[in-house]
Amino acid sequence: MKIERLGQDKIRIFLTFDDLLERGIQKEDMWREPPKLHDLFSEMMEQAYNELGFEAIGPLAVEVFAMPAQGMIVIVTRGRSSRDDQLLEEDLDEELYEMEVTMEQSDIIMYAFADFEDIVSVSKQFKSSGLTNSGRLYSYNEKWILVFEPDSIELNSHHAIIALLAEYGEATSVTYAMLEEYGKIIIADEAVQQINQHFTF
């Protein structure tokens, strides 16, 4: 579980599928098991407090982005409440938050790479395995991010593509909307094919 602060009242939590499995949560449970998710959310809020001093008090807006290739991103935004300044120490053990939850699912595959050489290597592997020539390449926060739309990938090669991406890169906690807004597009179409054409060694 990775937690980062996006602002004074906003944090982002990234959980891989391994994180979820460790807690007994399957991918399907994210949509139909409120008690398990409630326990998970309590654990996330406790870790956010311990690591960042972020208190889950008052109204919270919770956005959950489920991404089959990467895991789950949870963005928590704390609203202001008139109770904020009146809380007593003994109240902290009680549940003090009201949640408004928005859930979205995205089949877009996104993996981040620290070095451009890793992008070249994974592209070569795609070519030799006959997997894909598609994809878009972005630059974001000093990392390279390869993005694949689900309709550009054959169903039977989905797992092989994710396995190769995971070998050279890492699942990213950035949402696609954030990447579109703040990332810089380097190769807009057929990124794998173009990399293979221009980088040979």
TrEMBL record:
**Which protein family is it in?**
Belongs to the MecA family.
- Pfam annotation, one family: MecA
Kindly give the PANTHER family that the UniProt entry links to this protein.
ADAPTER PROTEIN MECA, ADAPTER PROTEIN MECA 2
User: This protein's superkingdom?
Assistant: Bacteria
- Recorded protein name is Genetic competence negative regulator
Residues spanning the membrane: none
